[in-house]
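Q: Structure tokens for this one, please.
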Amino acid sequence: MKSPDVRGLGVQQDHREGEVLAHDSTVSMRLRTKAVKTAFLTGIGSKVGTTLLGLLSVAVAVRAVGNIEYGVLTTLVGLVAVFGFLDFGVGNATIFDLSQLHARGNTAGIRKLIANSLAFLSGMSLVVVLLVIPGVLFMPSVLLFEAPGVDEHQIRISLVIFAAATAVAIPATLGSRLALGIQKGYINNYVNLASAVGVFIGVLCGSVWQENLYFFVVVFVGIPVIANVAQTVLMLNLRQGRYSPLWAACELSVIGRLLTRGVPFMGLAFAGAVTYQTDTLVIMYVVGAAGAATFGVVLRLFSGLTTLFTGGLQQMWASTAHALADGDMLWVRKSFARTLYITLGLYIAASLLIVFLGRFIVEVWAGESVVPALELLIAFALWNVYAFGMSQVSMLLNGANKVKVQAIAACLMAAANLPVSIYFTNSLGLSGPLYGSLLCHAVFVGVPTVVMARRLLVSKGI
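A: Here is the predicted structure, written as tokens:
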């Protein structure tokens, strides 16, 4: 009997395996492309609703509490993002790991990662409760916000509410990270829309009931946190608990590695907080609460524009990591270029529209007392267009896990940004923090990250 041709069988087997790999690669590419498209489309759709509801909420709140108390309120809302680095970057570090594990179909690895992440984040939440809240209660009066006509007791209660919400928010955002990692970032858009609906209803109730400042702090700060908690619970129980925490896999060594991976993200978050979120605080202390109210209204106008694309950009981060795990550098190049050109073009056009119509919009929307000068609208447009473009470069590098250099550059920028912004505010007024942030970011972060991104895009992968 003639023996089989082993070499021929080997060739046939290799050919079949190659077809399977090609098929898996094609399916994975389609999954990523669909995830990004869905995230952008649902993001824009939900963010239109979120933005409109947010603008209405601000309009009602300003009229309900007055521009001085609203200055305090908008400062506290901004500070929630400032203290996002208290998770030591572990939350953002999981996005890369979740995307890589999902690309490999490693569900057990995802459950193990979630368990260790949730254990650490819950511990940090407890630390904030035990340390920050007592600190706020016994804070000397001289360190509280200076807001003429606002009772100190209201400000102190508002700060306690802010601290409690910050503590809960630390582990509550894990659900949004999981959604991105498994290529379902569109879920985050629906959660944000539901949160905006809740905030608007709460603001209406507070206005009708003539509630105090701290009630509105609960609404603006607390309701988004509650929405994040609900999302995390639902995501962990998705598909009969497919991604539920594998508590038996919790290990200090794994948490230690997560913490090591998260430190660069913490640096980025801290630097981003100093750059993007402390502007209102600078205005509050240098110009006063009335100036903070005007600045906060315009900030809300432009942040509403930015959030139109946030969901899609975050999904690009996770999908880039997913693509690099598959070795699909071609997808990374094409998707980055297409996303950057389309979204940045739309953003520039919308920013110009706000510059020309902004004063009229604010007067109708929030009242004459907070109408900004044209110079402030121009400064906001310049800074936000630049920041929006650079955020896409940062998302690309995050997806490639190139975070350490970004973190170092961002921390150098943060060290320079606050004093430069204070100096510019003293000399230029409300536009000062924006020009200070633009200058510091371009010098310390813009140049090195663009060079890194270019090298990544011309390489064969990581």
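A few notes: Residues 1-23 have pLDDT under 50 and may be disordered. Residues 31 and 418 are 42 Å apart (CA to CA).
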